[in-house]
Amino acid sequence: MDELLAFVGAGLSDLKTTAALAPSSETLVREMTAPLPADARCVVELGAGTGVITAALLERLPPDGMLLAFEINPRLAAFVRERLPDPRLTVLSCSAESLGRELRARGVEHVDAVISSLGLTFMDDALRHAIFDEAVAALRPGGLLTQYLYLHGSFVPFRKFDDEFQAFPAEEFFGERFSSVERHVVWRNLPPAFIYACRR
User: What range defines the domain where residue 90 resides?
Assistant: First the structure.
């Protein structure tokens, strides 16, 4: 209940950055983290929310692993820090656009995976491209990025993307950056969502 109240409160106060009104379902969390490489030690999470995916990632990481979680909403960032006091976890209340800088500050050259829950369809074009350019540059060769997109946001042409009025062109957006892109649907989520598993 505390988790739901935190998420709804953050969503109502800043829907554009939160991009949802309910935490991810257990099924979505499982599907987002399932492709994580078994030997992953250094992982980045973009859009930690209330930490449901964060917690699942910590379960998968080894004792000497590192998880850098970005959550721009300060209320949610504080909630995750309190909920998950794990020395492997660093929660940053700043834009994922600063990913490269934050990694360099910690002496990290590449990461094994980036797990993103960012609301891509809500972002300005320039910010969306900047964040994902940073994410791709941070990944090691063969590294993994997973991202979910709600089904309605993938089909409804409700705004312009890259100066063209259309539904978010996810296949094109990911295909330009990754050598392999796989997609499947998770129905047991509110709302249902596509999950993209992308590899360099």
Answer: 2-199
